[in-house]
């Protein structure tokens, strides 16, 4: 519980300049963000959407432009992030839920679309294998789960090179080195990315009929899984 509460507090502090920080700290952030909507079928029209780990609502804002009549459920552990969303989406058909993934009761056969943008990397492999079957059950038949994130196991041989490139990217935007120092500490303490091939196998094992990478640059990836 202490680790979870600390993680929520980390994102409370991160909330003030969330979008700017993500752009300057996460390679390809805007492209990965837009992929969540761009990769959906042209005739896809969800009635209910779950934004899993919604942050300040950047994913929901993009989806609202495309699906203004859908009902949105925004789930996040950070009260400050949810408050930003309340202000941002005032008057929209949005429900806000403060919860960690483990504490949320996923309704069955309810959502048409579930999105996760840079949130699942906080879950280790065991928790991903726990949550993927729940996401499958929570989707209606024909529903879609879509995800953008860093997808490489920290034990992979390529991980060290990725971290060096990432450090260079962040320091190019924040030359004093303080932002990378904070980010590296956060990454070590809270982030548990997994290789895409492992996640694909877990998703198929959970019952998803198809998993497809729609965009990637190195290990920064976006995939879509259909029910």
Beta-strand proportion: 15-25%
The major beta sheet can be summarized as:
7 strands, mixed
Number of E strands: 7
CATH superfamily: Vaccinia Virus protein VP39
At CATH level 3, the topology is Rossmann fold
Q: Give the H and E element order.
A: HHHEHEHEEHEHHHEE
Question: What's the mean pLDDT score?
Answer: 92
Distance between the termini: 32 Å
Report the top-level CATH class.
Alpha Beta
In short:
With 227 residues, the chain is of the alpha/beta class. 45% of the residues lie in helices and 22% in strands.
What does this protein look like?
By secondary structure, this protein is an alpha/beta fold. It has one domain (2-226): Rossmann fold. Helices cover 45% and strands 22% of the residues. The chain has 9 helices and 7 strands. It has helices at 2-14, 18-25, 29-38, 58-66, 79-88, 125-138, 159-173, 178-190, 196-206; strands at 48-52, 71-76, 94-98, 111-117, 139-150, 210-217, 220-226. A 7-stranded mixed β-sheet has the order 3-2-1-4-5-7-6, sandwiched between helices. The chain is globular and about 45 Å long. The model is unreliable at 1-15 (pLDDT under 50).
């Amino acid at each position: 519980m202490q680790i979870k509460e600390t993680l929520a507090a980390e994102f409370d502090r991160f909330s003030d300049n969330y979008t700017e920080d993500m752009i300057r700290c996460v390679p390809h952030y805007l492209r990965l963000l837009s992929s969540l909507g761009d990769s959906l079928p042209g005739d896809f029209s969800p009635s209910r959407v779950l934004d899993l780990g919604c942050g300040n609502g950047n994913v929901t804002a993009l989806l609202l432009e495309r699906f203004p009549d859908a009902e949105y459920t925004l789930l996040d552990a950070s009260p400050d992030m949810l408050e930003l969303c309340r202000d941002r989406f005032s008057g929209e058909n949005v429900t806000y839920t403060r919860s960690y993934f483990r504490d949320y009761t996923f309704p069955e056969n309810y959502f048409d679309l579930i999105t996760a943008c840079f949130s699942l990397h906080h879950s280790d492999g065991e928790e991903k294998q726990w949550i993927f079957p729940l996401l499958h059950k929570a989707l209606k038949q024909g529903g879609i789960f879509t995800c953008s994130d860093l997808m490489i196991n920290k034990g992979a041989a390529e991980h060290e090179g990725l971290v060096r490139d990432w450090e260079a990217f962040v320091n190019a935007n924040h030359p004093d080195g303080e932002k990378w120092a904070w980010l590296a500490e956060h990454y070590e303490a809270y982030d548990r990315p997994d290789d895409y091939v492992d996640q694909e196998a877990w998703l198929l094992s959970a019952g998803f009929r198809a998993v497809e990478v729609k965009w990637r640059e190195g290990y920064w990836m976006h995939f879509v899984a259909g029910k």
